[in-house]
Amino acid sequence: MCSTSWTRDGSEDIELEEIGDGNINDVFRVTSVKERSQSLVVKHGPAYIKCLGPEFPLSIVRLKVEYNALAAFQRICPGYSPCPYYFDVETNAVLMEDLRDHSIMRKELISGNINMETVKKIAYFLACVHRDTHVSKLSEAEFEKLQQDFQNEDMVSLTRQYIFTRPFDKTDPTNRCSEAVQKKLHLIYEDPGLLDSVWKMRNLFLEKKECLVHGDLHTGSVLVSNNSAKVFDNEFAYVGPAAFDLGLLIANYIFSYYRHMSTQENHDTHRKFSQKLIEACYLTVNTYLSVMTCTVGQRHEYLNNLLTETAGFAGCEIIRRIIGTAHVEDLEGIPYAEEDALEAGVRLLLGHDRIHTIDRLMVIALMLT
Ligand code: ADP
Ligand code: MG
């Protein structure tokens, strides 16, 4: 299925290029000098957060989890993620297919490019992974094994802190936001109802064991080219709620929506593009449900919960990307985009209990009439 014709005797002349952004791991492209079309990607994880240094330890288990998840993805939905070639225990490195002809989806969205076929593929991929690892589909022993293979405590703890805890603690020194957003912070810190909702979503994230989830599915975790979509960077994979992946993905389409709605020059072109992002949200949920609902029983209750939880997680992701430490390029520096998106996140969190359909989610997030 996944193979490479590389020799492993060390005699190959190779060229090494660092391609990672250097935050958590080392990511290199290795190219054969003799046969330049031959290349692979090596992802290596130090035992600490690379950009912060050794005083911030982080379990190296994450790279084994990344490899396990790539292998599971390839088995369940071949061709929708990079092929895993090898996991080297000694150096704690994953070797995988080099998708050098692809580009990061977030960058494409920022440039105003979207291909609905890739949007559909991401949702299809996600649904297949969730369906085939769903608690209702596996035996008890199989589900137990899945949880063991994807025990990823340190990464789950990072998400807990950076999505659900730190951004909602106004004294946390890692938070940052623009001056315009500062004027809106009372919407977060002075609303006990909102903080209760965040706490509820945090507990759901930690406690609901539903299926294998990617765990960090934003538009920077997808490589695209023409009709091809490849989901990668799955070191946060764990067994958790399906809606966590869906919520993050929808939130990231919403970021792009607000970017293009707020861009002043070539106003009409950007407006038109933002309408495509609404379409992308519908297509995502509808494609996802067309795969999932064939499998999961209690259709009505299942649907009700899925969209409620998706809205809640989307709300947390939107807010933390504007007032927490990790911001998104889609919104930064675009006047009004951050404030408008922040308010969308607040509406989703406060209203998530009453959201049971994608229609309702979009109406509340984007104030559509
Ligand atoms: P990290 O988790 O440390 O951020 P990523 O897995 O996100 O590392 O990889 C960092 C960057 O390296 C990506 O944004 C992408 O540009 C590039 N990259 C990673 N994996 C591949 C791949 N399989 N093919 C091509 N480029 C890749
Ligand atoms: Mg990563």
What does this structure look like?
The strands form three sheets. The protein has a five-stranded antiparallel beta sheet, covered by helices on one side. It has a three-stranded antiparallel beta sheet with strand order 6-8-9. The protein has a two-stranded antiparallel sheet with strand order 7-10. The protein starts with 13 loop residues before the first strand and ends with a helix. The radius of gyration is 20 Å and the shape is globular. Helices cover 49% and strands 12% of the residues. It has 13 helices and ten strands. It has two domains: 14-97, Phosphorylase Kinase, domain 1, CATH 3.30.200; 103-366, Alpha-Beta Complex (Aminoglycoside 3'-phosphotransferase, Chain: A, domain 2), CATH 3.90.1200.10. With 369 residues, the chain is of the alpha+beta class. Helix 9 (242-262) packs antiparallel against helix 12 and helix 12 crosses helix 13 (358-366). It has helices at 61-76, 105-110, 116-132, 140-149, 153-165, 179-182, 186-189, 192-207, 242-262, 267-292, 299-323, 337-351, 358-366; strands at residues 14-18, 26-32, 39-44, 84-88, 93-97, 103-104, 211-213, 222-225, 228-231, 238-240. The model has no long low-confidence stretch (mean pLDDT 94). The structure holds adenosine-5'-diphosphate and magnesium ion (MG). Belongs to the methylthioribose kinase family. Its EC number is 2.7.1.100. It comes from Lingula anatina (Brachiopod). Homodimer. Residues 16-252 form the Aminoglycoside phosphotransferase domain.
